[in-house]
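Thread: NAP complex, take 2
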Amino acid sequence: MTEKRSALVTGITGQDGAYLADLLLGKGCEVHGLARDVSGFDFDRLASSSQREGRFHLHGCDLTDQAALRNLVAAIRPGEIYNLAAQSHVPTSIAEPLMTSEINATAPIRLMEAILDLGLGGHTRLFLAASSEIFGDAGGQILSENSVMTPRNPYALSKHHSYVESQKFRKERGLFIVNGILFNHESPYRSPAFVTRKITLAVASMRNTGEPLRLGNLNARRDWGHARDYAEGMWLSLQRDIPDDYIFATGENHSVREFVELAFAATGRRVRWEGAGEDEIGFDADTGVRLVEVDPVFFRPEDIGATVGDSSKARAELNWRPRTNFAGLVREMVLSDMAR
Ligand code: NAP
Ligand code: F7E
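Output below.
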């Protein structure tokens, strides 16, 4: 842990923010969370962190408010900053590219400038949440830190912009910056805007609603890990003496279809698929009830077919490894949604 034992986490209200806050508090850290709206704040994801009286502080601040962000950093003088705040949904980035770029690219650059201007360069270590989306569609090739990057949507472009700029701040201006190139990671805290949680919520509630689950590309494949493991990787990456960039990934990928099958299996149901493309339907293999339908509304114009990452650098240098496997992740998410 760096000298100060205080950390500023932007995006504290998001999925990763919740796991990271818990981890940092468990390590004895003073945690400052940046949230854009603290009025009527819902502590759902942060329930356990908020109970750590005295060491958990929330600050209302929009990441794009340069002056407020700078004042916050100046007041806290954090030993570590984890910049997790983002517009993180790929389809939204296509609808709102400017807003996505301001939050995901311009704001982190301003944050780096603020650290320098405040004279905190030798004190504050900065973690930036980069994304496997920066590689674009690599045709299922295993991706390492040195793979070619051809980002293809506004979200990916914004993350790539911040990634490239941060390397300049590190090399040319001496800032301690780490990019975690994060492959997809999920959990019961995942927003339902993403396919995994959309599936587990629907599977858990289907006996009540009877409504089939409507999905887009069932054949898309992702390297899916558990968010708790990736939060640990973020922390580990700032404990090294030399800043560098790391891929965090499990090294295997699975299709949306496999995720669906395992999710239903967790509730004792088997899926039988019939038809193809937009006409494909998933039935309950025992009762014949319609469980899944394909809806073209959820297809993406330039979807990435498959991702899989090589995290051997993080494994070797940080002693990081994912602890939860794919089957365990799906089961945990379904059981959590059923318990709700
Ligand atoms: P998330 O659940 O979408 O959380 C994003 C957080 O950013 C939320 O707390 C959100 O606050 C906050 N935020 C958005 N705009 C903001 C603004 N203008 N000012 C202040 N806060 C703002 O994302 P996540 O899954 O935890 O991911 C964490 C980071 O990792 C993100 O940078 C994401 O792009 C990156 N990443 C995630 C994955 C993944 O699979 N999860 C993979 C690669 C990279 P509100 O609650 O107010 O919306
Ligand atoms: O899509 C397909 C969809 O929205 C995964 C973010 O955390 O990871 C995440 O981005 C796949 C895609 O995540 C539906 O077409 C099918 O191929 O869950 P997703 P994502 O786009 O991979 C990266 C690494 C990030 O950095 C992002 O911040 O699933 N898919 N049917 C669907 N996707 C959604 N959302 N909804 C569907 O109905």
